[in-house]
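In this section we walk through a basic example: taking a raw amino acid sequence and producing a predicted 3D structure, encoded as discrete structure tokens. The instruction is simple. Fold the sequence below.
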Amino acid sequence: MIKVLINGEKCKGCGLCIQVCPKRILRFSENINSMGYNIIMCTDQDACILCKSCALVCPDVVFTLQKQDSGGK
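The resulting token sequence is shown next.
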């Protein structure tokens, strides 16, 4: 399972990540950070293909992408 972590406090809601996501799983949430911006959220963690497009385009470096271990070693 892949996990998309978004630092909402650093997000300025520019929406560039929404535009470049090939799976269309990013959108503006209703949550507003302390700077007054609507932050980005991932709508379907399982659909993420870990292409890193969101992280590469983000001017505020708010994305951390982690490939989750399925539990077995």
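Looking at the output, two observations stand out. The chain has two helices and four strands. The chain has one domain: 2-67. In the next section we compare this with other chains.
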